């Protein structure tokens, strides 16, 4: 019997070489291009409603845009989306913006989050390919106002890297011992060249070759504007969000207007209302075989 949460992909032109699957019954192997010569291959991971909404300004802890857009935790499509995100965390390292980190106080960017089903095969898949047990968690913060008690910074054997501005680095160093040992990359992030320089340093100083950036949309837009966002894995749900019911609505990229290419699309069944899409902004070619020691 087929797995009701396995995404079956229709590959149009996704390029690269297949990286393999930790469990073919759950995950179809995907292909990735070779990273750039001097910076990581950066791919966004996001979810959007049927009318393109990705987020809004939360009214409180219970006002979770992602959960509302996904339409509930028990749907097979929701399980498929969660498993896809966990698989993508096995490709390399993972990034997140400071606001998303503050809004999700338990979030850890690793193949098995708290409350998830056990996933030893995902960790074994990473290690067998020469990667660390946990992905490095790259946190982007303009101002250095980070909750250093967050589990991203306290989970044993999980290493965090903060990409910030010189001013943000000064704020973090002012926190004392808890921040002194934290790897910092300080560059003028509000400038495209500064953001590009930070990614060159992630590549050269920390060996980051593939970076799954889970957002939010503000961070993904900044990366795209700087020419650093190579592609996006987008889950489009069948939920329609009333834009008038929320403040600070953010919508996904208009991929076609941006001349992105839809290189793969998937579903868990023919009649499912969810679509799993892979949009590519730029295409270097090559394979995604991880480098030993990276």
Give the C-level CATH assignment: Alpha Beta
Going by helix content, strand content and strand pairing, the class is: alpha/beta
Outline, from the CA principal axes? globular
Mean pLDDT value: 91
| Helix content range | 25-40%
Order of helices and strands: EEEEEHHEHHEHEHHEHEHEEEE
* CATH level 4 superfamily: Dihydrofolate Reductase, subunit A
Radius of gyration: 18 Å
How large a portion of the residues is in β-strands, by DSSP E?
A: 15-25%
Q: Can you describe this structure in just a few lines?
A:
The protein is 25% helix and 21% strand. The protein contains 9 helices and 14 strands.
Question: What would you say this structure looks like, in words?
Answer:
With 294 residues, the protein is α/β, with parallel strands linked by helices. The protein has one domain: Dihydrofolate Reductase, subunit A. It contains nine helices and 14 strands. It has helices spanning 65-70, 76-88, 98-103, 120-128, 151-154, 166-173, 177-180, 192-206, 217-225, and strands at residues 8-11, 17-18, 31-32, 41-48, 53-55, 93-97, 137-141, 160-164, 184-186, 210-213, 231-236, 250-251, 261-267, 275-280. The strands form three sheets. Strands 1-13-14-11-4-10-6-7-8-9 form a ten-stranded mixed sheet, with helices on both faces. The radius of gyration is 18 Å and the shape is globular. Residues 286-294 have low confidence and may be disordered.
């Amino acid at each position: 019997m087929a797995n009701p949460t396995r995404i079956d992909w229709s590959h149009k032109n996704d390029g690269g070489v297949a990286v393999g699957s930790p469990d073919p019954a759950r995950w179809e192997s995907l292909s990735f291009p070779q990273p750039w010569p001097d910076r990581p291959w950066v791919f966004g991971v996001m979810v959007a409603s049927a009318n393109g909404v990705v987020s809004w300004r939360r009214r409180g802890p219970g006002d979770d845009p992602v959960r509302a857009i996904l339409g509930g935790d028990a749907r097979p499509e929701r399980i498929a989306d969660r498993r896809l995100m966990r698989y993508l965390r096995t490709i390399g390292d993972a990034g997140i913006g400071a606001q998303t980190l503050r809004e999700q106080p338990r979030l850890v960017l690793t193949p098995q989050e708290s409350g998830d089903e056990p996933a030893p095969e995902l960790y074994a898949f990473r290690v067998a390919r020469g990667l660390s047990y946990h992905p490095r968690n790259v946190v982007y913060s303009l101002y250095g106002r980070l909750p250093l008690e967050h589990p991203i910074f306290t989970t044993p054997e999980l290493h965090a890297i903060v990409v910030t501005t010189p001013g943000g680095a000064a704020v973090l160093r002012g926190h004392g011992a808890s921040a002194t040992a934290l790897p910092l990359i300080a560059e003028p992030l509000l400038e495209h060249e500064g953001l590009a320089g930070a990614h060159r340093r992630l590549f050269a100083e920390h060996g980051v070759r593939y970076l799954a950036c889970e957002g939010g949309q503000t961070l993904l837009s900044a990366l795209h504007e700087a020419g650093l966002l190579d592609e996006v894995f987008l889950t489009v749900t069948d939920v329609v969000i009333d834009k008038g019911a929320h403040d600070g609505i953010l919508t996904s990229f208009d991929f076609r207007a941006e001349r992105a290419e839809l290189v793969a699309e998937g579903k868990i069944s023919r009649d499912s209302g969810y679509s799993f899409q892979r949009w590519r902004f730029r295409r270097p070619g090559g394979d995604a075989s991880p480098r030993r020691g990276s």
